[in-house]
């Protein structure tokens, strides 16, 4: 863990399946540009997609993508990226596409194939790569969600492993490349003061909110095949839970972290329909690509249990949704109140007992809350936060970090096969059986039934608006 970049032989080409798509435009080109700017990208970047584009079209698209997210573009870095681009148009079902890709790759011996395509196409492309002999010596980077349920994830793992060895498969979850999320691991195990209270004896509940102001926008068709549970809960939120709940890794090295995280997923109790509230924002059914009678959830709130020695009896509440009032990710680890209620304000509901709060997005902070007496004769007080904010800027964005890691064979920040399958096993029952999605007003905190789920804990903690933190 000391040196995350335990690099092996670098990939000598990057193949981008789905290069004309949304993900490439929003995330991947800016990441490649940032790598080019740092001098970290020197290999050809071969885009593959079904659109009958020319190389010039692709260059324009990449330029547009970089200009959209970068205020002052470094012209030379952009030119370097543009010069590395190649384009192979073709149908993923056609062996001719893979033959053309092979020609475009020239003498590359260790290409990295990035599947930035709809999950339904993963098996087709992996099969095509295998049949064309393009898996030999290569790496594959697979976007989430990895599968759509336990059975399909197992099948996808089986198929991927028939073409690539496990250490050449990089299951990407960009949350694992975020600084604030990497800091959960560091904060927990680089400090000694947390450990005595980080368990069922002192923690009464944990809640995590991943809220977004935006709706599904142009991603309606993708979202219809995913929904909130598959899109962010089974992966992003569960990865945060695993880092918060895991046991200390037994040795330095990411293998130990992967092992401990997998145990958390294995200890999660499979979810039942009563543990879940599904919501859909009003207007979702009018979004492009969305079915008129769609029951796909754009919001979910759920209650999770981890049946382990450390967490037995502690409920974990997870909530995520689109068209909510604020874009933020926050964790609240709620501690139990002191055993005796000694003061005048001990019974009041004005505040919670002590807590630890992780602000994970957009800013990064950790807050420890404790009660402090107010000035005066009476023994009453207020909750104050010891607030530690990370003001560092200029670190690598998650996609840049993860792409560079995958291209040098460093799997530390990627999800392992056993974790992915165990995580699917937890959500599988509620994918198959659930209540209908309840409509909610855009700009609110989702259906009121979600509040009932957590009423026993004093309700949801809504993330602090970012403006208020400034
Ligand atoms: C993606 C989901 O994985 O994560 C999106 O597909 C979601 O629906 C996004 O908006 C959230 O990521 P971030 O980094 O903006 O919090």
Automatic annotation (TrEMBL):
Keywords: Carbohydrate metabolism, Glucose metabolism, NADP, Oxidoreductase
All copies of domain Glucose-6-phosphate dehydrogenase C-terminal, residue ranges: 186-458
Active-site residues, Swiss-Prot/TrEMBL: 236
Domain Glucose-6-phosphate dehydrogenase NAD-binding: residue ranges: 15-183
Enzyme class: oxidoreductase
Signal peptide extent: none
GO biological process: glucose metabolic process; pentose-phosphate shunt, oxidative branch
Residues engaged in binding substrate: 174, 178, 212, 231, 322
InterPro entries named in the record: G6P_DH, G6P_DH_AS, G6P_DH_C, G6P_DH_NAD-bd, NAD(P)-bd_dom_sf
GO cellular component terms, semicolon-separated: cytosol
Pathway where this protein functions: Carbohydrate degradation; pentose phosphate pathway; D-ribulose 5-phosphate from D-glucose 6-phosphate (oxidative stage): step 1/3
MF (Gene Ontology): glucose-6-phosphate dehydrogenase activity; NADP binding
Keyword Oxidoreductase tagged: yes
Catalysed reactions listed for this entry: D-glucose 6-phosphate + NADP(+) = 6-phospho-D-glucono-1,5-lactone + NADPH + H(+)
Pfam assignment, any one: G6PD_C
EC number: 1.1.1.49
SUPFAM superfamilies membership: Glyceraldehyde-3-phosphate dehydrogenase-like, C-terminal domain, NAD(P)-binding Rossmann-fold domains
Source domain of life: Bacteria
Binding residues for NADP(+): 50, 144
Family statement: Belongs to the glucose-6-phosphate dehydrogenase family.
Cited NCBIfam families: zwf
Role description: Catalyzes the oxidation of glucose 6-phosphate to 6-phosphogluconolactone.
Protein name, per record: Glucose-6-phosphate 1-dehydrogenase
Record lineage: Bacteria, Candidatus Eiseniibacteriota
Gene behind the chain: zwf
